[in-house]
C-alpha cells in the first residue's frame, strides 16, 4: 500500500463565517419544492372548507361536483373513513387525563372551526378541482360558537366537543414547594414588601411561512412515497404508519427543500392523511397544495394565552417569588405538540433570576378557532415576555433603574452551574458580559439622558428604552427530561458518515433543515473532525430512505443534538481508520496521532491521510483480520441537558404621542450561543428571529370575529413586516461555551424571537410611562398606542 500524505486543512472550519452552500440552489430556483413535483397520471386535490366555526352538517351534496369537467372523484368523511375512527395524531399528552378529541381527516357530522375540511375534490388539474368546490352544496345548522377562553371554562358554557364534557384540555401545575426546588409562593407573596400583579395577553399569531404546505403521494411501485413540505419527515412517516395502520417499511417520506416552517410545519395534517387515503383509493399519485388563504386559516396558529402574573420582592429589589396563572387557547383540536407548548414556558418564567418561590398553573382550553401549536420559541417567548415586562413594572414600583433591578437578581457568572427554582440546571452563562457589551453598543446612559430631556421639553415624539435580558432552554432533547414531562416524546438524534472510496464524505443526518443552513454547518463540523476539505463533504437529509432514523428539526435542537451525533460518528470513523493506518505504516496504533486529516507516526514524517485510507481499504486485499473494507460509521446522541443560550437586547423606540406611531430607532442585541459554528448563520438566525419577535410586538395578530371567522387571512390584512419596517440591527456575541455538548454550542434558532418582543414593548411603555400609560396590548399598533395615551390603560 502507498502512503501518500495529503495536504492538511490549515484553518479550522468551525468558527468560519462561510456563505451557505445550499443558498445558490435555493435563491436561483435550481431546486425542487413539493409543489414542483409532477408525476405521471397525477391528480390534484382541493378541499371544500367550512365557512362556519361551529355547526352541524345537515346535508352534503356532491353530485353536481362529481359531474364537473376534469373531476375524477369527490369524497366526504363517509368515503375516506367510513368507520369514523381515523384521527390526526397528537403526540404529547401532558397529563395522564388530558382530554383530546378525535381530529378527523374530513369533518363528519359537525365542524369545529372555520376552515375545517368537509369534502375533497380530486381532479385532473388544480383549476378543475378548485372550480368544482363551488358545486358542492353543504347545509349547516349553527351551534353556539365558543371563542372566549375564560368564558369557555365556566360551568354550563357551550362545549366545543360534547363528548369530552368540558372545554378544558388539561390543567398542568408546577409548584416549587411541591417539587422541592424552592419555597411556597403564597408565603412569598404574603411576606413581600412589594408585589406587582399584571395581566398580559399573548395575541394569536399565524406562522406565515413563505412556502404553503403541500403533500404529494405516490402509491405506485413497491413503496408508497410521500413528499411533504414538512419539518418532520421521520415523525410524519412513523405517525402515518401508526395512524393509518400502514406497514412502515412500505413508506418513504421525503421533505425536499422546504420554504420555512418556524414550527408551523410540525404536524401530521388531516390533509396528509387525506392525500394518502385518496391515493390508495384511486391507485394514482395525488397532490394537495394549499392556497395562501387556506394556509392562514387552517395551518396552526400560535401563542394566544392570557397570563396573570404576580411578582413579590423586598424594597431593596430582591425578588422573592413569582406566581403565574395561564390560560392557553388550543383552538378546536390538539396539535402535535400544542398542549405541551405552554409547559415549555413553565420552565422559563424564572428566566435568569435567582428567586426561590414559584408556582405555575396552566389551563389549556378548547375554542372554535384554528388549533394552536408551536411557533418559533413555543412557550418560551410568552414566558420571557411576562417576566421581562413585570420586571420593568416592579422597577417602577421600587423606583429603581430596570437594568439595576435585573443585575441585582440575576445569576452571577461564578454561580454556574445553577439549579433554578423551576428545577433546571443551567450549565454556563455570563449575563454580566453580554449586558456590559450591549450597554456599550447601545449608549444606554446617553439615551436615558436624551429621554429625560424629551420628557422635560414635552416633545411630541417621546423616547423609550426597553430591556430584555433573556435565557431560554433549547436543544430539545434530552429524552429523559422530555419523557418525564410528556408521555412518549423522545429527543435523541442520529448521524451516519460514509467515507467514499475517493475520500469524499457523505453525511447523513436525522435533522431536517428548512432554512437553517445545516448543509453548511454540518460540513464545517465534519471537515474539522476528519481533516478533509469543506468542499469534499455532502450532507444528505430529509429523506427517510437515505436517512432512516431521526427526530427532525424544531426547538433549536439540530446543532447541539444532531451536530453532536455527527461529531460522535466522525470519531468512530477515525477510530475505524486507525488500525488500518497502523497496518499501512507498519507501526503500533499507540504510536499514531491524528491531526489535520493525517495519521502520523509520532516523531517521524511517516504519515497517511484518512482520504487515502478510504481508497486503500476499498482496493486492498491484505487487510488484517476483522477489518471491514470501509470507514462508514453511525452514532446516536441524546444529551444529558438542554442548552441555555442567553443575551441582552436593548431597544430604543420613538413614539409619536400625536399619532401613536412607533418607530424603532435602534436595536442592539448581544447573544451568547456558546461556540458559534458558523457566525454568519448565527447572525442570520438572529436577524430572522428578531423580525418575528418585533412583528409580535408591533404588527401581527390573527383576529377572529364574533362568528369565529378569521378576519385577516391575507397578507394585505395580516401585517408580516418587510425590510422597510425594520431598523438596522446591531448584533454582537459573547461566547460562553456550553458544557452540555462537546461542541460547546448552544442553540440559536429561536433566541431572537424569544428575546425581542419584550424589549420592544418595554420600550413602548417606557416612552409613555410619564403620561400614565402602564400597558399597551400587543400588537402595539398606532391605534392601541393612541388609545393607551388618550383613553385609559389600553
Ligand atoms: N448554529 C451555529 N452555532 C451555534 C448555534 C447554531 O452555527 N452555536 C447554526 C446551526 O449550525 C444551524 C443554525 O445555526 O445551521 C440553527 O441551529 P439550531 O439553533 O440548532 O436550530 P435548528 O437548526 O434546530 O433549527 C430550528 C430553529 C427553530 S426551532 C425555528 S422555529 C426556526 C429556526 O430554527 N425556523 C426557521 N430558524 C429558521 N430559519 C429559517 N430560515 N426558517 C425557519 O423555518
Automatic annotation (TrEMBL):
Residues in domain Aldehyde oxidase/xanthine dehydrogenase a/b hammerhead?
28-144
Say if the entry is tagged with keyword Cell cycle: no
Name the keywords, alphabetized. Answer: Molybdenum, Oxidoreductase
- Coiled-coil regions listed: none
Q: Which GO terms describe its molecular function?
A: iron ion binding; oxidoreductase activity
Signal peptide, first to last residue: none
Give cofactor(s), names only: Mo-molybdopterin cytosine dinucleotide
Fetch the Gene3D superfamilies from UniProt: Aldehyde oxidase/xanthine dehydrogenase, a/b hammerhead, Aldehyde oxidase/xanthine dehydrogenase, molybdopterin binding domain
List, alphabetically, the Pfam families matched: Ald_Xan_dh_C, MoCoBD_1, MoCoBD_2
PANTHER family hit by this protein: ALDEHYDE OXIDASE 1-RELATED, XANTHINE DEHYDROGENASE
The name under which this protein is listed is Carbon-monoxide dehydrogenase large subunit
